[in-house]
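Exam review. A common question shows you a sequence with its structure tokens and asks you to describe the fold in words. Practice with the pair below. Do the first one on your own.
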Amino acid sequence: MDNPGFCSWREVSCSDGRPHQVLALNLSQSSLTGTVSPSLSGLTNLLHLDLSSNRLTGSIPPNLSNRSSLLSLLLFSNQLSGPIPAQLGSLTNLRVMRIGDNDLAGSISPTFASSLLTGPIPCQLGRLTLLENLILQQNGLEGPIPPDLGNCSSLVVFTAAVNRLNGSIPPELGNLKNLQLMNLANNTLSGEIPRQLGESTQLVYLNFIPRNICSNTATLEHLFLSDNQISGEIPEDLGLCGSLKQLNLANNSINGSKPTQLFKLSYLTDLLLNNNSLVGSISPSIANLSNLQTLALYQNHLRGNLPREIGMLGKLEILYIYDNQLSGEIPLEIGNCSSLQQIDFFGNHFKGQIPVTMGKLRPCLVEQNDLSGEIPPTLGNCHQLTILDLADNSLTEGIPATFGFLEVLEELMLYNNSLEGNLPDKLVNVANLTRVNLSNNKLNGSIAPLCSSHSFLSFDVTNNAFDGPIPRELGLSPSLQRLRLGNNHFTGTIPGTLGGIHQLSLVDLSGNSVTGSVPAELSFCKKLTHIDLNNNFLSGPIPSWLGSLCYNLLVVSLDNNILNGTLPLEVGNLASLNVLNLNQNQFYGAVPPTIGNLSKLYELRLSRNRFNGEIPIELGELRNLQSVLDLSYNNLSGEIPPSIGTLSKLEALDLSHNQLVGGIPLQVGSMSSLGKLNVSYNNLGGKLEKEFSRWPVETFMGNVRLCGGPLSHCNEDESSHLLGKINTIPYLPD
């Protein structure tokens, strides 16, 4: 290389003497594509090679091992694949090997999703006695960790996290006296953790837990062991790790109780033991952890009281103890946790009242307990509160007016209590709400104070006693997805502003006293899947625009209103519809044959209307109809089409109280799925064959010309001519 021009390139470092020799090549973040060139082995004096953070593909060239002078090899954050060449064990001067992260951070194109280094970790890497950093994380490496790595006596950092390694951790790794960081998380390692690892006296960070880990060192500060398959009890030896600041054993299968020695770790700031199988109680010795900022004990099997000593943790910011079996009263002393910002007590058995001392909280979640009494007005002093969840308790009295000071509140969950009274007018100041659920209480009056936000995603006040008109302001939240106002006393008409909620998927106004027609503006809500307006006083026809919601609509429930007119043919466009319930209205005219197009229909109820004409034979095309077909209490005439008998999933068929004539098709008697049949009070006649004998007399009563089966014996002379007609009714093939 007699031309020294390339030595002036920013990416290239050369020797000073002549001829110039390339010593370092740094092409990191150069948008390189293609493969790693084998010709790099021609750089005979190369000390440092950095090709990281590009888009290189293919395998690592084995002939890179010819460069025995190489000190650092950085190939991480590419799209390399294939095995790690065993020949790299010949790079005996290597100090740093980093070939991890070959699944790329962030979004991964499906084309490169499988671009990972695979195969085992070569045992030949154990020859690299000068190696200080071995980083193999985030690949697809598999097989056991080779014991030979215990010969890498200079190793300071070893991480092979997020691979597919299996087997046990070799005890030879305990020979690595200079090791400070080891991360083997997110593999499928098993077996016992070797005690020899406790002899690594320089360890500062370990993401795997050996026993007697701190018997020879006091320097370990961070121990992260989450998301492994660790079982058994927490070793008492952890109490010897006097410098420990962060301990994360979450998401394992650890059982037993927490060793008392843990409470000697006075420097601990984060203690995460969640998602295990821990038993016992929370010790009053928790007070010794005076620097604790995060305590996560949720989803275990802890019992007993929350000790009042919790109030001595003045630096505690996050307290998550949900999904345990804790009981007793929440101690007043919790108010002394002056830094507390987030608590979650969900799913325990706490009882008594909410302490008036609770303050400075952002999320406050104590749902699904046995708390009683009134909500303390002092919660209104938590001006930074963003989530308030007191659901599933036995709280009484009203919602405090002080809640009007919670101006940054985003979620208000008070459902399943016994709250009563009007909503405080000052709630109008809470204008950043995204989710509200006050369902299943005894609240009354207007909901207008709660409707000043324009950011609602869900709004649920079902099963209360709210009254007055539905506020038009609810239509000013364009991202509202679920609106539930059912089973209250709302009056007036449905506000047309709801048509401006283009994200609306569910609207439930059932069980109120709403009047007027179904507003045409709802036709703009193209994402509607559920329309539930039953049990109101709605009038007018079913709008034909319902057919324009054909792609998403799953449930239409308009029963028990005073709707009228004919059923539009466009209803047959609702190809995704599962439930159509129009019972107890004043519809008239023919049942449209287009209903037969609703191939996903599960439930069809048209009873107690004024439908007339014949039952469409197209109903036999509803092969997924299962729950019920109810056409009772109408003015239907003609014969029962045999195609009804092809509905092989149908469980209930009610054709009673019509003017049907002729016989009951044998196909109906052969429907094995049918658990309820009612054809009473029609003008049916003829002989019932044995297939109908399993039904009670009430099924057929009111049809004076029927005989046989469970009814009286037939006079053959009188019924033979009719029976012949019945058995020759044409059958519609599939």
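Now try the second one, then compare your answer with the model answer below.
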Amino acid sequence: MLSQTKLQLFKFASLHFLPKPLHLSTSSRTTKISCISLLKKCKSMQQLKQIQTQILITGLHQSGDILNKLMVCCTDPSIGNLHYAERIFNYIDIPGLFIYNLMIKGFTKNGSFRKAVLLFRQLREEGLSPDNFTYPFVFKAIGCLGEVREGEMVYGFVVKNGLEFDTYVCNSLMDMYAEVGKVENLKQVFEEMPKRDVVSWNILISGFVKCRRYEDAVDVFRLMQRQSSLMPDEATVVSTLSACTALKMLGLGKEIHRYVCEKLGFTIKIGNALIDMYCKCGHLSIARQIFYDMPIKTVICSTSMVSGYVNCGQLDKARELFEKIPVRDIVLWTAMINGYVQFNRFDEAVALFREMQIKRVCPDRFTLVALLTGCAQSGTLVQGQWIHGYIDENKITIDAVVGTAIIEMYAKCGFIEKSLEIFNGLQEKDTASWTSIICGLAMNGKTSKALELFSEMEQTGIKPDDITFIGVLSACSHGGLVEEGRKHFTSMTKVYQIEPKLEHYGCLIDLLARAGQLDEAEELIEKIPNVNNEVIIPLCGALLSACRTHGNVEMGERVAKRLVGIDYGDSSVHSLLANIYASADRWEDVTKVRRKMKNLGVKKVPGCSLVDVNGNVHEFLAGNASHQK
């Protein structure tokens, strides 16, 4: 209740600053029942304040039931105001558990997670025992804050209160573990639950999906089908379909689709998930049928359908659908722009971005990253500088994601000093940021600086990834640092447990080949585990090129013979071998190779150049005079 001092202040504030009390008919007395009835019918904050004034005038504020109902209305987001509820709460001398629960729930739903946790601590300091309505919202707040230790401490209170087997509390505990990525804890709580409802199963499945444990999510869904009498609901279906999408498990996706048609029924969320699954599994015809059968087409399902067309390379169909969608959000605009960038139609991406500006749709960082990626791919510095200027003019924060895209754009356009300037100005640098600048420096021949920054990256405690090592090995290759390259290649596997990929082997073989250590390069190719043609062709191609540079005809013949046996249609193999013979004055062999190319119908692919003129990229083919310029 309200203490005497606080009551006087509360009355003064209410009578002087709140509206006039709600008028009651003369036939009814202001009783506890009538006040509660008024609160139940309350539709707005204005009405709520009038009822509150009436309560204070009649002295009914001392009633716990009325105070509880008043706080219910204040914390209701549809009619109340949480800030106002907090002010009333601060006047209450000894709030009961019910009011504490209301405030904790209100703060959590409002995103004020720290306040919710602090209120929970205050509740315990007041000697109150939390119940199964308190803990779920406390765990939700802790999960959103990512404070695992705090969550484990609160779980200790759960056990102390004897609520460790309460389904509602266990579900919220599982949700917290899923939020902070503690998958094993999530699984353990589920397994120890004596009674599980459909929400329990849903949280476990969605938790696995959230933590990218897609196979586990599918296994739990199968387990639910076998061991539980509970029927999968909308949440079960949507989460499992997300796992199917990630794993490209079209069979299970179709099975769930049948279940939806026969037993569960379609909802907007299920329709969105099915469209996304079929699109990403390459079954556009089924996705299109679901899309056109949906009575209400949300921007989410429209975006999935546009992205589906984009991923299958059907950009014109994607644009056609895009133009028909009446309401487009930034995600949809970005999906279409990204599609143009992905398929090297950069001019159309820029034109669409300009149209987006005309329609006053503000781009987000993902839109700008897509455009900057397009600039980097096409080498259009002028457009890249314009986008960078747009970011600065509109005071868009250059975080790690945007910063990485700008660094890559300037590096690929040859302005490595500008890349370094952007990198040094970043407040927060993640693995991608470091990798981008290291690869950029390597690409621009700045070997020493690239390796210096890699060493600095290791010292700061940021773990490099497989792409970082491509940059490092590439830098070693450009600098001819054989020992340094060997050392980094070894540390990649032994220190960072990163399995070498084609690109890593390619860099090391290129390094050895440039240094003239062809025998070691050939041995390395032979030692590559699980070798297949996709790996062998580019690696042997690099070695064959080195054979030409160093005039090693014997090895060149051996490597070329191996390559021709795999892919006889590749003109570069025949051309390199002919050049090797030519450098050794073996002209008869040159003639044989060229005759063989003619007999096999192998034609040399013409060289190509891209030239940026006033922001427009022009393509020129060797020997082709058809370009208008």
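Model answer, second protein: Strands lie at 608-613, 616-621. The first strand starts at residue 608 and ends at 613. Full marks require stating both points clearly.
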